[in-house]
Specification:
This protein is of the alpha/beta class. Helices cover about 40% and strands about 15% of the residues. Helix 4 (about 110-120) packs antiparallel against helix 5 (about 145-155).
Length: about 220
């Protein structure tokens, strides 16, 4: 039996996320404490920031191909709002703004991607011990230089989640386990592939971890 771990991105976070897990697992709480120390403020006290008003260059692009019938767009704020109105006039059942602070996965993020490339250049990236698939191209990457490249590209490239999930399943995964707060990917996965031989689980609290461990045949966590 093969399983895959998947990781949701921006938009899955919420105030108090993973609170129950942090209370039960010291390592999780320590990770939040470390992040708070680096940032200079307490992550547990932060409501999600709304999108900043972007410059009026009119950029708006499809950036997340989540599942059949659900696509996320991003770009300049005014252009994105206009696109919402257009989508509604063309028959969209639902078109809403998301509480995020940057136009992730759009071409407006290329500058940030190059800054990330410079930072990654100071690190030692090793070949992964387990297969790594990127949602940039729904392909496996094993070479360190290749992995650095897709990490940079993912900042300004569309997320091809539907293709990525299907690639994982084609590679033999029958259990897909979401790591992180919420169940965003788990819900999408069930919409993409509705097959009785597949299992989609989410890890967000001690109980859900026990369920996933039991499903994969591993021992219960301490």
């Amino acid at each position: 039996m093969s399983f895959a771990f998947v990781f949701a991105g921006q938009g899955s976070q919420s105030v108090g996320m993973l609170g129950a897990l942090a209370a039960a697992e010291p390592a999780v709480r320590a990770t939040f404490d470390e992040a708070s120390a680096v940032l200079g403020y307490d992550l547990w006290q932060v409501v999600i920031a709304v999108c900043r008003e972007a410059a009026g260059r009119g950029v708006v692009e499809a950036v997340n191909f989540n599942c059949p019938g659900q696509v996320v767009i991003a770009g300049d704020a005014a252009a994105a709002l206009r696109a919402i109105d257009v989508a509604k006039t063309r028959g969209a059942k639902r078109a809403v703004t998301l509480p995020v602070s940057v136009p992730s996965h759009s071409s407006l993020m290329r500058g940030a991607g190059e800054r990330l490339r410079a930072k990654l250049g100071t690190l030692s990236v090793r070949a992964p011990a387990i297969p790594y698939l990127s949602a940039v191209d729904a392909r496996a990457h094993t070479e360190p230089a290749d992995i650095v490249d897709v990490l940079v590209r993912q900042i300004s490239s569309p997320v091809r989640w539907t293709d990525t999930l299907r690639a994982l399943i084609a590679g033999g995964a029958v259990q897909v386990i979401e790591c992180g707060p919420g169940k965003v990917l788990t819900a999408l996965n069930r919409r993409i592939e509705r097959r009785p031989d597949l299992s989609f689980l989410a890890l967000e609290d001690p109980a859900s971890i026990d369920t996933a461990l039991s499903a994969t045949g591993a021992a219960s966590h301490a």
